[in-house]
Amino acid sequence: MLSSGALEQPWNIGPMADRIMDELFNVKDVAKLFKCSQAYVYKLSDTGLLASIRIPCAGLGTQKKELVRFRPEDVFDFVERHYRNGRL
Question: What is the pLDDT averaged over residues 20-33?
């Protein structure tokens, strides 16, 4: 016999997780902030110039799928580092 708690979804970890995900920027947010393409944001993330969080997600086929998110403080640190160097 299943208890009532057994039917809960495993990813339902509460309002704190929702708040954390709401505070993260996605690629579109960063591209809009930087006034650049989303491809450029992915490139900054892939090369490690802009710190990112990569969350694996299920997808069809053999291609690896990930959600890419950015902490606001990492985005603003990136701007500060490159502004001081005279380039952005």
Answer: 90
Q: Which CATH topology does 15-84 take?
A: Multidrug-efflux Transporter Regulator; Chain: A; Domain 2 (1.10.1660)
Is residue 52 within 8 Å of residue 69, measured between CB atoms? yes
Q: Whole-model pTM?
A: 0.69
CA dist list (Å): 71 to 3, 18, 24, 52, 62: 38, 14, 5, 7, 29
Strand 66-70 to strand 53-56: parallel, antiparallel, or no bridges (unpaired)?
antiparallel
Q: Are strands 53-56 and 25-26 parallel, antiparallel or unpaired?
A: unpaired
What angle do the packed helices 27-34 and 38-47 form, to 10 degrees? Answer: 110
